[in-house]
Specification:
This protein is of the alpha/beta class. It contains nine helices and nine strands. A six-stranded mixed β-sheet has the order 3-2-1-4-8-5. It is globular, with a radius of gyration of 18 Å. About 5% of the residues have low confidence.
């Protein structure tokens, strides 16, 4: 038997608990170890943009529902759009979109996949359409014109290192929103930082598949490791999936939905 960790390969790799019913996982990997996710490999589609040699990996890649290499371009948004386009007609009831090691992002309450599962299991009872797991990751924004990324208020969205590497878009966030969704943006949105979240199937399917194809195509056209549209899209997921709570008026209150 291989020494690599695979799905249910040994008692050591068995899940600590059963995963929530109806959940699927899209996982964006660069060079992180993903041993913690291995017990749930049969639920996970991995999108690998790193350069770890398969022979040096610590998991059995064949154990995963999908293990797909992608070019290192487009940030998580490209991976998430790729997942949705490929699975739009067969989405699980809940989808966790996560970085391979989101623990620093999610804060002290999250150190394992199982703690993320606890949040997902509460979603049916509280009728949640979208959660970033940590509500502190929500930020109200109204940046629809060209963004000054050097403004200190933008530091939560883009680090100094990312700023040095970013490939600027020839469109504004408002232009990008209109291109993707075909409607004008609201005055403000409640945006989620970090690209890690869980969403219901019907929240994804509230938009037709061609919306996600436009997102994917925009990343492919940008053809960049660190495109500015990746930061635009990061802000949009929460508003796309839960307009009831995340489309806001000028006062920052939820808009009345038609």
């Amino acid at each position: 038997m291989s020494g690599k960790v695979g799905a249910y390969r040994s008692e050591e790799s068995r899940p600590i608990r059963a995963p929530p019913a109806g959940v699927g996982i899209a996982l964006a990997r660069f060079r992180e170890k993903i041993d913690a996710w291995a017990p749930y490999a049969d639920l996970i589609r991995v999108f690998d943009k790193g350069d770890i040699d398969p022979d040096d990996d610590t998991v059995d890649r064949d154990a995963f529902l999908l293990y797909k290499k992608l070019p290192n371009k487009g940030r998580e948004g490209h991976s998430w759009a790729s997942y949705i386009c490929a699975n739009y007609e067969r989405l699980p009831e809940y989808v966790i979109f996560t970085q391979a090691a989101p623990w620093d992002l999610l804060g002290e309450d999250f150190d394992t996949p199982e703690e993320m599962f606890d949040v997902v299991e509460a979603m049916p009872d509280n009728e949640t359409a979208f959660t970033p797991f940590d509500p502190n990751l929500f930020h109200v924004t109204d940046d629809w014109d060209k963004i000054d990324w050097e403004d200190p208020k933008q530091s939560v969205w883009m680090t100094a290192k990312q700023l040095r590497m970013v490939d600027r878009a020839d469109v504004t966030p408002g232009d990008y929103w209109r291109y993707v969704l075909g409607v004008d943006p609201p005055p403000k949105i409640r945006a989620s930082h970090g690209g890690t979240f869980c969403v219901r199937r019907e929240a994804i399917q509230r938009w037709p598949k061609d919306v996600y194809e436009r997102i994917k195509g925009a990343f492919e056209k940008a053809n960049s490791l660190n495109p500015e549209i990746g930061f635009f899209q990061e802000r949009m997921w929460s508003a796309m999936f839960d307009p009831k709570n995340n489309w806001l008026d000028e006062e920052g209150e939820p808009l009345e939905q038609e």
